[in-house]
Structures are given as structure tokens and as C-alpha cells.
Amino acid sequence: MKIYSPLFIALRVVVYSLLMFGIAEGIFYDAAHPLGESYFSEATFTEIAQEVILFILFGIYLFLGFKWKEIQAVSNIVSLFFLISFFREFNFLAFSWVYPSLIALAIIIWLVIRDFKKIKSATIHFFSLPASSWLSSGFLITYIFSRLMGRSKFWRLMYHDESYRLAKAATEEGIELAGDTLMLIGAIEFLIYYFVAKKTNSDR
After folding, report:
1. Which of 94, 112, 114, 138, CA to CA, is 20 to 30 A from 66?
2. Residue 141: C-alpha distances to residues 20, 170, 176, 196 (Å)
């Protein structure tokens, strides 16, 4: 099946739509079944899903870094970025998340130095693929838009007491999970492209 055939595109649209529906229902469940007095705490579907997706993203891009030489220099860095983001999700454990993050950051710096001559061509190849648009969109939503929507001063414009915190948490965490899901879709698209291209080359 060709990667851009109408049938394969339609199938992916259905699967991705179901995925987005699933995370929306998960967020709804967290709102309907709070853990005691806490909404969207660390043990909820929303938070756990964020952690799981970030770890999956780390694994996928690490795999692509090993297997796909043309994008290796970028994919390795992207994988470690998601590993740091995964560690950051455990910020409730005081500063214990900082130390493994610093190790991952040191590895990123080492990779940049080691692969400096390859980064330009790898970047061009990486971002020339349509899958990178999913990654970029999800990145902007998770790391920028969700943070801006989670500003307390924004919610205080509409609420005159502390009741704004629930709406703030639902919006910020929900948007963040949606962005993570878009980045997961991007990673899946990278995998599809890799395996289809590999099969095409092996058939020649």
C-alpha cells in the first residue's frame, strides 16, 4: 500500500481521530472522577498519558536515530529532548528529576559536537518530510500555547475567586495532552515513512 494512497490516508485519519477522541474522553473522565479534592493530579489519566506518550516519543526517535542514517543527527537530539520532557513530568518529586535531565542535556551537547557536520543535512532531510509538520504543530501547542493558556492572570480576568483553578488545570493539561498526541501522530508518520521507504528500496 502506497503511503499517500487515498485508502491509506483515510485509514490513518480514522485511527488518529479515534486517538484524539480517546484522549478527550480520558480528560472528561478525570473531570468527572476527581481523586478526592484533586483534579488532574499526578495519578490521573491525563498526567499518566502525558508521561507515557513522552516516553514513547523518546523510544521512537531513538529507534529512528539508530536505523535512519539521513536523519540520525537530528533524531537522536529530538529523542533526548523528549526524555528530558519525560523527566520534567516528575517535578512533583522535588528536584530529583533535574539530575537525569542534566545527564540527558550533556549527551545532547556531546551529540551536537560529535555530529556537527551532519546536522545541517539531517535537519533539511528531517523537516522536508510531511511528518515533521505534526511534530512542529504538537510542539507549539504543548510547549507554548498550553503554557500561555495556563497563565493564572488570564483566568483571573474571568473568575473573581480561586474557583478558576479547576478550569485552568483542565484547559492547560488538556491542551498539553492534545499537543503530545499530535507529536505522537508525527512520530507514527515518521515510522510509516521509514518502513515504506525501506520496503520500496528492498523491492528494487
Report:
1. 138
2. 14, 15, 7, 29
With a cut of 60, say whether residue 40 has pLDDT above it: yes
38: β partners: 35
Domain that residue 190 falls in: 6-203
1 within a domain of the structure (yes/no): no
Let me know if residue 156 belongs to a domain: yes
Counting the structural domains of the chain, the total is 1
**Cα(171)–Cα(49) distance, rounded to whole angstroms?**
15
Q: Specify whether the CB–CB gap between 177 and 50 falls below 8 A.
A: yes
In a domain, residue 41? The reply is: yes
What tens digit of pLDDT does each residue of 166-182 get? 888 889 999 999 999 99
Give the span between the Cα atoms of 164 and 28, in whole angstroms.
Answer: 17
Asked if pLDDT for residue 7 goes beyond 70, the answer is: yes
State the DSSP H helix or E strand holding residue 103, giving kind and residue range, or none if neither.
helix 98-114
